[in-house]
Amino acid sequence: MMLKCFVVALAIGCTFARHLEKETVQWTGGNVDWPCSSTECLYKNGGKYINKNMISTRAVIYNNEAILAFPRFKKGVPLTLGIIPLDCKTGEPSVSPYPSWSLQEEGNCGALQSVVDLFLDPQNVLWVLDTGIIDALEETPVRKCPPKVVAINVRTGKMVKAVDLSSLTGASSRLQYVVADYSADGRVFVYVTDAAARAILVYDVTSDKGYRVVLPKAVTMGCTKRDVLYPSLVRRLDGSTVLLFSYLCSDQLFSIRTEYLQTGAAAGKIHDIGTKPGKLIFLGTDNGSAVFFRFEGHTEIYRWDASTPFCPENCVKVYDGQECTFPSEVIPDYKKGRMRVLESNFPDFIRGTVGCGIDHSLVVM
């Protein structure tokens, strides 16, 4: 069936002063909302706050706020999980620690060390992937704590669960993405991609047990290295879920029904669903069957309805992108009933050519 899609015109260029509910929210670096001026001075003078080293790579939206991941890729990142208002009336929004300052402390394994991914589930539980490694892009990365997934109830801001992943990982593991899912009988599962190990970590949160699903060698065919392992959870009309996954370097897109992941019976259940039209960066879903992606090195975003065959005819361009920035994620804004794009000039961040700070934006598509 051919995909039919209505492309919604993007409304941008509104200033903060003119509009309460903005189509575009922009900020530079990490304009931190400090508890007091003495704390700010302490962090700055001690080298624990370097504005240009703060980059937000992942986000979720809850009501009128965006919760943001600030991985500690470089030194000087005082908070690794923050929150900003989407209805700031004037100027740039300030980033507050989420849910508290105490959860941002480096070296405290009960706190967050370096958050690299976020997933907000249908029960309003935020799942936070913390690698435990800081200064990942410095000369000497430092492991402060074991990797973990933390669950936070966004209604209350309370941490409700912490899952230690050290028994499922090794020294060479490279954890990148987390997805949360519910089984037909109500159990909670999290899936974490380990790109270096060619594996998906499956953790049954309800039963407090986990295991690794090692993927077949075919998923890395054509790859010279195991780079980025993208997962996308899509929902079928009957309520069941399927996990799509692919390496950036791979030519193919794969899928597995999550019931097989949940029962540990994944062997022989992985399907090759098609050849990708290029090197694709998967950006997110609408929490339904729509999958968003872009081509490596390009800013245009495409939408594919996973209930249709995976082919170029069913991939529709829905966003052109902005000059000098690249999309890193597409996320639902349920209050607006629209999708938002998180964009930044992260290539400058990688090259070390950032001026005052990273330019971020959350744009309504």
Automatic annotation (TrEMBL):
Matches recorded under InterPro entries: 6-blade_b-propeller_TolB-like, MRJP/yellow-related, Quino_amine_DH_bsu
Keyword Amino-acid biosynthesis: no
Alphabetical list of Gene3D superfamilies matching this protein: TolB, C-terminal domain
SUPFAM superfamilies cross-referenced by the UniProt entry: YVTN repeat-like/Quinoprotein amine dehydrogenase (SSF50969)
Compartments in which it is found: Secreted
The entry's keywords: Secreted, Signal
Top-level taxon of the source organism: Eukaryota
Annotated signal sequence range: 1-17
GO cellular component, one term: extracellular region
Entry-linked PANTHER family: IP19120P (PTHR10009:SF8), PROTEIN YELLOW-RELATED (PTHR10009)
The family this protein is said to belong to: Belongs to the major royal jelly protein family.
Name of the protein in question: Y_5 protein
